[in-house]
Input
Amino acid sequence: MGYINVNSDKCTKCNTCIASCPVACISSDSASKLPVVKTEKEALCVYCGHCESICPEGALVHSLSQQALQSAKEQSKLVNAADLALYFKQRRSIRNFKKEVVDKQLLEQAFDVVRFAPTGHNRQKNQWIVVYNTKVVEAIAAATIDWMRGVVKANPEIGTRYGFPGLVIAFDRGRNLISRNAPHLIICYTPASHPVGPKDAVIATTQMDLYLPSLGVGTCWAGFIYMALQQSDELKKIVGLDENSAVHAALLTGYPKYNYHKIPHRKAADVRWI
Ligand SMILES: Cc1cc2nc3c(=O)[nH]c(=O)nc-3n(C[C@H](O)[C@H](O)[C@H](O)COP(=O)(O)O)c2cc1C
Output
């Protein structure tokens, strides 16, 4: 079998598969009019599986089909748009967590979802570290503070611009504004050489940030830890990464201690129609 296998009895030659291909590697065979991937176009395929997913007749099988999942419903019928809008608007950064550890199965469930997030050229290069051990999260917060102390010493202007002196003082007084006593930290990284790594990782982490609350798990983007992970060798050592990897996002994770009862005000969307 080539890249695609088309059942000529089922195929109606509607060309939807051709229209859906992001890299235009499918064409209509001049004689049979059935969709084909010509040999010279095979290398273009990004294995996104859209051709098989979109075929209304189930006539096309991509060579990856053993992994293809059946989708049950049209997107617009799968979730109620009003509920989804409310769900998005209700997402909050959680800064107070219960001490209790999160059920690992819930996190695994979330990873199984976010692997479907879009990635440039469908490269799927995102990698994750779950810092499940709370003691290690605390060590990461302490190492982030050490890194901040170094920045303030070496470059007080930059340190002050980011508010590091206040964060260090708070930490020394027992107030952890870095990891906010979250039991876990989820880090997303890619190979450093991957050109769209930052975007792929932030998209998938955003999906994680949105999906986890549906399982009762709260999150907060850990911007300071992310910053420190870019520069601190001590931190890179703790999480086991070297210069071949680039960290793009980090999420504090745990069961929320409090519930939010109102949706806070936000600016109107700044949109220009042309
Ligand atoms: C890239 C990024 C980094 C962030 N870093 C932190 C952080 O280090 N600590 C923190 O408490 N909140 C952090 N946040 C959360 C923002 O402060 C929060 O999204 C914003 O105040 C709006 O609140 P909401 O998420 O509940 O709507 C970060 C958010 C983003 C997008």
Remarks:
- The chain has eleven helices and eight strands.
- The chain has a mean pLDDT of 94.
- Strands lie at 4-6, 27-28, 35-36, 60-62, 127-131, 184-191, 218-221, 245-254.
